[in-house]
Amino acid sequence: MSEICNDKLEYKNLIHGEWVSSKSGKLIKISSPVDGSFIGGVQAVTKDEVDDIVQFSKANFDAWSEVPIFEKADILYRAAELLEEREEEIANILMMEISKDKKSSISEVKRTADFLRFTADAGKSMKGSAVSGENFPGGSRNKLSYVKRVPLGTVLAISPFNYPINLSASKIAPALIGGNTVILKPATQGAVSALHLVKAINDAGLPDGVLQTVTGKGSEIGDYIVTHEGIDFINFTGSTEIGQHISKISSMTPLLLELGGKDAAIVLEDADLEFAANNIVDGAFSYSGQRCTAVKRIITTDKVADQLVDMLKVRIEKLSVGDPRENAQITPLIDNKSADFAESLINDAINKGAKIVIGNKRKDNLIYPTLIDYVTDEMEIAWKEPFSPILPIIRVNNISEAIEIANRSEYGLQSSVFTNDINKAFSIAEKLEVGTVQINNKTERGPDHFPFLGVKASGMGTQGVKYSIDAMTRPKAITVNVTDHTII
Ligand code: NAP
Ligand code: G3H
């Protein structure tokens, strides 16, 4: 067995370059949401161990920050290669640990290798600037400020269950290239996959203590690490509930938060409906709706709603439901609690008069793709993030009402507008209170070098390769003041 775990699949943490078990002696059992099979055990790290991990991070910060960027980039290039060499192994673990279909699991690993390379390239393109004092009233060319970006220190990266590889790497790599040391706290369900990612990055030649991991339940160890005085920046992706909690307790520690969403697809009367239906089904149901950027509501007018509903129904009927190993598109949800929540949203909508077009079937934690028409604003599904394959349709009278309903959400991640009128698309896009508007496309994060951000309850700060490096570094100005003019 590899150093990352023993032959009983008891996984260890990477602490100061060594894979070690926790002194707690406590292992958290990770079972597959697909068939209940044993994926592995992860360590419940103690508070004392967190103290040691943070101290190692601090001790190794200066040396790492001084490593030339091209050497840091070489490590990321090598990590990308290792990830690709281990693609099949890691994708198989991912598939069973978080119930993601095989094709999407492979694509998550590939996308992450690309992300590592792109981050290395972006790091090598980082440059400083020189600002002359003479541009500001009363200033003088005797002052010249050399401005460059420097790391923040120790970054705590906290990732969610749904993209344990990609959303861990999208924090780790920009933090490292910026010169920070990193501690990763992965989601417990997803931790085994994330530890394999960390192993690939570490095997690429990172010095000891530059990247370390803390596994354990967020409810037990989360508050302790988040409020640890040695943490200089928290980069969190997860639910709005936990994000807001972290923001309350973390005091002066700067934060980047990627949180929940309720992305709307607004379909105008002049849209290419076949195209919109294809896009919406893909956007709403891939990975069974467990994406922050999933299309989580359709807003349209009566004039096209019936036709659109028919087109959506035909496509949803064709979605394969079942086992991710057989590449089913709709797979069991991450746990029973999530399926209970999904079912409660469907029942609430039915009780308040909504019409089920297709779906409303459950087998354990597997929720069949469900389309709900005639959803009104009293229904929970109009506002809550289902994180499951449920798609509500809200019928409105006109574009103004569509914008009003879209903006009434507490969330503000993305929105789509489907129309053939580019002028209308732009004017609607200007009015939508979200981080990104997709014109004639499903809502989605990628490509990963685009700015990715949420407003309102969807987050704080901006991710995306260059934006993430900027977020985890700060400007440092060194100003030269020429005072002696005797030689002139
Ligand atoms: P979650 O329950 O909020 O957990 C996210 C992470 O926070 C996990 O690592 C979790 O660890 C940890 N955590 C829990 N309590 C903590 C605490 N008190 N202190 C520090 N960390 C703590 O979210 P999830 O269920 O994994 O992910 C689904 C949610 O993430 C959805 O709402 C989705 O929209 C959102 N998401 C947003 C984006 C985006 O980019 N905007 C991307 C992906 C997902 P444990 O697993 O050990 O509890
Ligand atoms: O769950 C949130 C991910 O960042 C979504 O990424 O839109 O590429 O699936 P994606």
From TrEMBL:
UniProt-listed PROSITE patterns: ALDEHYDE_DEHYDR_CYS, ALDEHYDE_DEHYDR_GLU
InterPro entries reported for this sequence: Ald_DH/histidinol_DH, Ald_DH_C, Ald_DH_CS_CYS, Ald_DH_CS_GLU, Ald_DH_N, Aldehyde_DH_dom, ALDH-related_metabolic_enz
UniProt keyword list: NADP, Oxidoreductase
Keyword Cell division belongs to the record: no
Residue stretches making up the Aldehyde dehydrogenase domain: 19-478
Gene Ontology MF terms in the entry: lactaldehyde dehydrogenase (NAD+) activity
Pfam assignment, any one: Aldedh
Annotated catalytic residues: E258
Coiled-coil positions: none
Family that this chain belongs to: Belongs to the aldehyde dehydrogenase family.
PANTHER family with a match to the protein in the record: ALDEHYDE DEHYDROGENASE
Protein name as catalogued: Glyceraldehyde-3-phosphate dehydrogenase (NADP+)
Organism, scientific name: Mobilisporobacter senegalensis
